[in-house]
């Protein structure tokens, strides 16, 4: 078969080796760091479109051509523009070495640190989302700071300090230690789709949760204090999309090593928050599988029937089966689930 | 080619049409599927947060069941796939956890040795069937069908599992759609989140997020959406009327499960693939294809 061009690139090898299909597009769309860095030669023109905002919030895209130099970063392009083409361009940076977390922007729809991202031949640079823009690429971090402060991200000891050295194992600190890698750049906060929905929910968002995780996942912290903080996070409104993990320049596994361990703490310390996971666990422990009808009934009660036309449509298409939900409470997997998960936690 | 088959809970309930279509298509492709009758839920997103040991045991148990059959494991749900991949990785990385899980499995005479290969149906098409063979099997090229691929999250993120710098670079669904004769379209929702995992306690997130994705697919000319995940399907298809009410406009966007699209190209009738079981009518697709 000849290679066939399309929007999504030429077709690759006919049959892929085991494990290759799950990353199809990585090579073809220059998704590796090495390929991205090799995309430009010294002296090439880098086209930079910058979304510029004024104080009134009006925005326009301005386009610049920047001569590429060796190892050029997004920050170098911004510096070149500020020096040579737009002296009034507003952007933040300080350390230039992935430490201070001030230079995050969106490049071609993806959150990056300007100081740590290689330029691309054609870049659209925008300010982070989900925070108010002050001017051009500078956002106001105050809403984040206020959120973090409200979560009381510190340690309160329930017992007297036992003295040095304090017994503390790697295992006990393994999640807090990941959270402590955070540089506070707000990339994850900008990428989070739930935060993007504004005040629809009480979800605190990934960055504030990572800040909280630094102390709430520390075993020395007072459980009562941690419970108080967790109760303000809306953490069970995280949709587990992993967008935060994808953009984190510090490579923190935000979902699996911060949000999930915090959910576990919430389940233990503020049980009322964890109704959904507990209901699911109870159903799986009993039936071996999830019966969606049973889950909805447990979480919403007969309030679930409020939209009667929807219930009828679901019935008509065979999407729900009330008889199975109410009468067939075991499956061939029930025994195994009960053995593994123990008896149901609640009636 | 023989696989231990793990449909997951959704394909056995809300999305039973996915299970039926998978069996029909597998038969056409020469894939023999061995159902693991006592396989449990993988714990969705909820169990992994509140009961890590229970989560790992359930998942490793599924891998052990497949290993006992001496077969690789085929999944058809994104979240199940990631749960199994994550549990497998933890089993390899954390020997203490592996011992603990195996001690629990010993109660029913099971033991996991770390040999089960996990493959989503999408990957099976590329790695076991191959695109050349699939092209030969196409008897009804889906010419004229514009498809908006909706990956969902757990088949392309996190980077730790799949390796993408930018998960939008995944092209597996579009490439496949092209082989089947379709024209894949580009749109903003391709690798975005449907919001399923909070929908049981609050549907509003799913409704708001997914509304944007369907609207973008429609604006870019899609006749249908396509997803490899029954959980995404539940929101895209099952919540579409509520999404329309929220947006105040009609969308009428059919949403196909991956095996259904493959099945149509292989000549299977829409009724056999249970397109009639969707909440959003799929007749427009059948008409377009002249079936």
Going by helix content, strand content and strand pairing, the class of chain A is alpha+beta
Q: CATH first level of the largest domain in chain B: which class?
A: Alpha Beta
The number of helical segments of chain B is 15
| Percentage beta strand of chain B | 5-15%
Largest sheet of chain A: 5 strands, mixed
Task: Please name the CATH architecture of the largest domain in chain A.
Answer: Orthogonal Bundle
Overall, the morphology of chain B is globular
Q: Tell me roughly what share of residues is in helical segments of chain B.
A: 40-55%
Description:
The complex is a heterodimer of chains A (347) and B (291). In chain A, 36% of the residues lie in helices and 10% in strands. Chain A is of the alpha+beta class. Chain A has 3 domains: 45-138, Beta-grasp domain (Ubiquitin-like (UB roll), Roll); 142-161 and 168-269, Alpha-helical ferredoxin (Fumarate Reductase Iron-sulfur Protein, Chain B, domain 2), CATH 1.10.1060.10; 275-341, no CATH class. In chain A, a hairpin with a 2-residue loop joins strand 3 (104-107) and strand 4 (110-113). In chain A, helix 3 (142-150) packs parallel to helix 6 and helix 4 (170-179) packs across helix 9. Chain A is globular. Residues 1-5 of chain A have low confidence and may be disordered. Chain B is α/β, with parallel strands linked by helices and 291 residues long. Chain B has 2 domains: 2-120, Glutathione S-transferase Yfyf (Class Pi), Chain A, domain 2; 130-289, Rossmann fold. Chain B has 15 helices and 8 strands. In chain B, the strands form 2 sheets. Chain B has a 4-stranded parallel sheet, sandwiched between helices. In chain B, helix 3 crosses helix 5 (95-106) and helix 11 packs across helix 13.
Task: Summarize the topology.
The complex is a heterodimer of chains A (347) and B (291).
Chain A: H1 33-37, E1 45-53, E2 59-67, H2 74-84, E3 104-107, E4 110-113, E5 122-126, E6 133-135, E7 138-139, H3 142-150, H4 170-179, H5 187-191, H6 206-216, H7 223-230, H8 243-247, H9 254-269, H10 275-287, H11 292-300, H12 308-316, H13 322-327, H14 334-341
Parallel strand pairs in A: 1-5
Antiparallel strand pairs in A: 1-2, 3-4, 3-5, 6-7
Helix pairs in contact in A: 3-6, 4-6, 4-9, 6-9, 7-9, 10-11, 10-14
Chain B: E1 2-6, H1 16-29, E2 32-35, H2 46-50, H3 52-69, E3 73-75, H4 78-93, H5 95-106, E4 118-120, H6 121-129, H7 131-137, E5 146-149, H8 159-162, H9 172-179, E6 183-184, H10 196-199, H11 204-219, E7 224-227, H12 230-238, H13 240-247, E8 255-257, H14 258-265, H15 283-289
Parallel strand pairs in B: 1-2, 1-3, 3-4, 5-6, 5-7, 7-8
Helix pairs in contact in B: 1-14, 3-4, 3-5, 4-5, 11-13
